[in-house]
Amino acid sequence: MKIEHVGLFVNDLEKTVSFYEKYFGATASEKYHNVKTTFSSRFLTFADGARLEVCTREDLNQEKLDGYPLGYMHLAMSLGSKEKVDEVSAQIEADGYTHLSGPRVTGDGYYESVVLDPEGNQIELTV
Known about the structure:
Blueprint lengths: L5 E4 L3 H12 L2 E2 L3 E2 L6 E6 L5 E6 L17 E5 L3 H13 L4 E7 L5 E6 L5 E5 L1
């Protein structure tokens, strides 16, 4: 068994899709749109076959929770080397996105940097 894809609701579908294409080499599908429900999505496929479905609709819950809410917390992207983690972290920060922490070696031995995508979703950049 494997996870087929993960879904992510966002406000700005195209800006989020462009972010993952630029920094992680994702290839985006054509946009699907359901006029009746206002649901739209695009699938992002990464080099290893992993997929992320980026979705939006008009009636999204806009409330942001503080602290560490229940549910999925972050997406971890394996970039293949410490140098690539450093490079992508620096580029994302230089382009004006939030860089939360790192690069650093965590207590459990991961080399990681944590950034936010355009919607504020955490991404761990790892080796």
